């Protein structure tokens, strides 16, 4: 049975293997010489292997498709090997880490550095100047689409009759309010005739832990693109802010701060009669008037919160009348979790103005 599987030319020659039209080999030809005979292209000659049985025919039929399927099955069994297997078979040099839990915006050479986060995310942060009959104020915002959708705080644009936005490259745009949610202190505005902007990457605030390093970027007191850093000090802090449109106008008269209430006390001015409470991320990254609506960022460069309030002892007290411009950061800042923003985004885009 095994002889029928031998390819031509694999073993010693025999008279039957010689083309009858050719003369027989001379008698002095060594026994090891092979006849000059065409070899079938599909059966290349191989050296004798008398001690090994021939491979089963079913194994010869395996092609690249079968190999890829086998790699995928093995990778699924061991876990974490799928990306590597596909890389090797396809020749793709860029493969996401199989254990990655989030997107990394910061280049690998600068990962984990404040400067790397600042360089990667600053182009996605804008300065907002809102004007009303009561005056004007400065806040911040985060670009979320390349054609100019921007998330900010409701109290930054509440009651505004005109909104101007300046991007990190110095360009100025006119913006309109698309939707607001005073209960969450969020607003969506849109730039006119904008394109090619760098949108920020929204992260996952549910994965944030106390002690995580964070970076804040905004325009405190009109100082565009100011970068500060710190850690996440606490989670799920109940922060109460004003929902009154008139309160937003009052903030402009007082220099652009944002009043809020915590633990039964009011800070940075009177919150007014109409308020809302949300659970915030607490950070010791320095926040000042003008940071409102800006970004709180993790060390991968993804947005984890929208900065919204700060504690200031000099501006504390209900109806104190202290100007918020006199208040400075003491390392107690608060940000709306980005998952709250993502959950509210479609409502804001629909034009809701609650």
Automatic annotation (TrEMBL):
One of its GO terms (biological process) is proteolysis. Residues 44-55 have a biased composition (Pro residues). GO terms for molecular function: serine-type endopeptidase activity. Pfam families: Trypsin_2. Keywords: Hydrolase, Membrane, Protease, Transmembrane, Transmembrane helix. The chain crosses the membrane at residues 66-86. Residues 1-61, 239-275 are annotated as: Disordered. Belongs to the peptidase S1C family. This is Trypsin-like peptidase. The lineage of its organism: Bacteria, Bacillati, Actinomycetota, Actinomycetes, Kitasatosporales.
